[in-house]
Q: What sequence folds into this?
């Protein structure tokens, strides 16, 4: 039986540039789908935040450009501006229908974002 699970992920970029943000957002989203064996029909919605220093483009734009995700609800918001927090970071929460239990879900943290969830990090750039 499939239930809706939240799958987390994050990735950092070097610069606040449109193409770099879009590429990183697509890389993260694709890796979350791959690691969790998800198809477009499994996705119930996606919530994305970006740190205040990323203003060139909405990270959701690149997902919406994929025809198979055209009707998936996607929302972007600005991450809280907390002193000392990781900068130039895109965080993602994918809500997906999956038969996997909470312990089987693979959360994905890439590049500098690996430091966000050291409790989950298992190597290879993902958890």
A:
């Amino acid at each position: 039986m499939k239930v809706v699970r939240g799958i987390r992920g994050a990735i950092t970029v070097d610069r606040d540039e449109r193409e770099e943000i879009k590429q990183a957002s697509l890389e993260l989203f694709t890796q979350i789908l791959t690691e969790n064996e998800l198809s477009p029909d499994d996705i119930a919605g996606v919530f994305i935040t970006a740190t205040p220093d990323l203003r060139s483009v909405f990270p959701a734009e690149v997902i919406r450009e994929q025809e198979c995700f055209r009707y998936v609800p996607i929302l972007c918001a600005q991450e809280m501006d907390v002193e000392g927090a990781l900068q130039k970071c895109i965080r993602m929460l994918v809500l997906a229908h999956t038969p996997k239990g909470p312990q089987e879900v693979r959360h994905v943290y890439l590049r500098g974002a690996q430091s966000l969830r050291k409790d989950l990090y298992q190597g290879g750039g993902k958890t």
Residues 12 and 89 are 4 Å apart (CA to CA). The two ends are 24 Å apart (CA to CA). Residues 122-127 have pLDDT under 50 and may be disordered.
